[in-house]
Design goal:
Blueprint lengths: L1 H16 L12 E12 L2 E9 L1 H5 L12 E8 L2 H8 L6 E3 L5 E5 H6 L1 H10 L8 E5 L3 H5 L18 H6 L8 H8 L6 E9 L4 E2 L2 E2 L2 E10 L6 E4 L15 E8 L2 E19 L5 E16 L5 H25 L7 H8 L1 H7 L16 E8 L13
Parallel strand pairs: 1-4, 1-5, 5-6, 6-7, 14-15
Antiparallel strand pairs: 1-2, 2-3, 7-10, 8-9, 10-11, 12-13, 13-14
Helix pairs in contact: 10-11
Protein name: Ger(X)C family spore germination protein
Organism: Paenibacillus ginsengarvi
Subcellular location: Membrane
Length: 387
Amino acid sequence: MRRVVYALLVGLGLSILLAGCWDIKAIQDTNYITAIGYDYKDGQYVVYAQMIDFANVSKREGGKAGEPASVWSGHESGGTVIEAMNRLYKTSQQRVFWGQVSSIVFTEEALKKGMSEFLDGLIRFREMRYTQWIYGTKEPIDRVFMMLPFFNQSPIGSILHQPEDTYRQRSYIRPLRLQKAVSIFREPGASLLLPSLGIADNTWKIKGRNDPKLMVDGMFAVSKDQQAVWFPDEDLIGLRWMDPGTKRSDVMLRSSGKPAVSISVDKPKSKIKVDIGNNGKPNFSVRVRGKIYVSEMIQQMDEPEIVRTANETIASEIEHTFARGLERGIDLYMFNHSLYRKRFQSWSKLTDSGKTPLSDLQMRLPEVKLKLIHTGMYKIKQPQNEY
């Protein structure tokens, strides 16, 4: 009998030490922040937060939804970023969890104030990571946060949270993660090129009404030496050929000023070379290699003509973007950083160890060599030999 009582007492004592789930929180009892927005108005830091009903989203797997997912957007202001974030708790109703944040959006005014002032408190917080997508925008952040994808799908499927799929099909402006942004921002001579989110109001319709959708409409160039400068996507037409992450991009070749052949360039590779002239100033040259595929032929062009026109067109686009950057004092191709990497002594001398970045950049005519791989189901006209 004593053994039984002793065993019961020991078992009761050990049960007290067991971990339990008495403090567990159900998913519907927690508010999950999925995106953060930053603005700066009237000397105050403004913090926006997007929340999505994950319980509602989880029911949509395996079929289409009949109703759009519920999305909330809220904001508060304060003397610091953390103060504004803390004020959001007053109306949150339930515990707020920041570990689900996948996107960070800055307004133009916030970028002019300085990214570091907004990010310092954020990246120190233990619930946050460095894997969020990061954007700038000229649109109101609360409107950006309310944009939904097609077919009443989860808002997590929009460009705001998942930009990679769209970029693989149209490699124009590369999406950027926070960890990459922080590393670039700290590099000497580097300019941070931040994708810009816009809203297309008139592209899509549903039931005869406009259905606005998110899009990447340009880029903010951010550096330590000057305020953020916005470029529309048409000014960045040559940047895709200099980006190592470009998967595929389309080009329209023209003949006599009219559209002739549409081609796709797959995985172009670029290289920047730096030479120091007799005057001690650097000269930059760009080389691009890639494979091209014919996707549409409006006017007949033979193979050599297609390749030659494609080389000339891409070289012209690279020059166009370089010139647009110089006009606004921005080194879009980060030639300053290439000089720092490849000719450090010259960089240190010419820039006073990075205090005065080079402004009178010079680039030779880009060297572009493309190889035609496939012309589609129809053969193209071959040039006739002349005797």
